[in-house]
Design goal:
mainly alpha, two-stranded antiparallel ribbon, single chain, about 140 residues, globular
Length: about 140
């Protein structure tokens, strides 16, 4: 999956400039889309539950710190809100179409803004499907 992102020259989650390849080779954070502490607080105590590959994404360290243990419905909604206010709080994307493209390239469903811990299983299933399709596209492109 990461090879597919590098091959496509994808940008990191919530970034207009930073490429996934840079974060892999230089200094990026692997972020839990549903943060580990958030999941623990909601009953997902086994690390095999929260340390799923489909729950990981690369992003800049400062963005990871800002997100912390917030729920995805909270911080993704804030990312959408900044597209309307012009005030950068999470990453550097200030255009809703660019944010939707960024979510797509990171295989994150748009309804993430409505997801809570109760939706975690459905999120993993949907993201796995998207990641598999991305890998398939990459495979057939080489």
């Amino acid at each position: 999956y990461l090879a597919a992102q590098v091959h496509a020259n994808d940008r990191a989650l919530f970034s207009t400039t930073t490429r996934v390849s840079n974060l892999i080779s230089i200094a990026g954070d692997v972020h839990h889309i549903f943060p580990k502490e958030y999941l623990k607080q909601n009953g997902y105590l086994d690390k095999t539950n929260y340390n799923q590959v489909a729950n990981f994404v690369y992003l800049d360290t400062p963005v990871n710190i800002i997100i912390g243990k917030r729920s995805p419905d909270d911080y993704f909604r804030e990312a959408y809100d900044q597209c309307h206010t012009g005030e950068m709080k999470i990453g550097t994307i200030l255009n809703e179409d660019a944010l939707k493209t960024n979510l797509e390239s990171n295989c994150i469903p748009e309804n993430i803004t409505e997801m809570t811990a109760a939706d975690y299983g459905d999120f993993l299933l949907e993201r796995r499907k998207r990641m598999a399709a991305r890998i398939k596209d990459y495979y057939f492109s080489i």
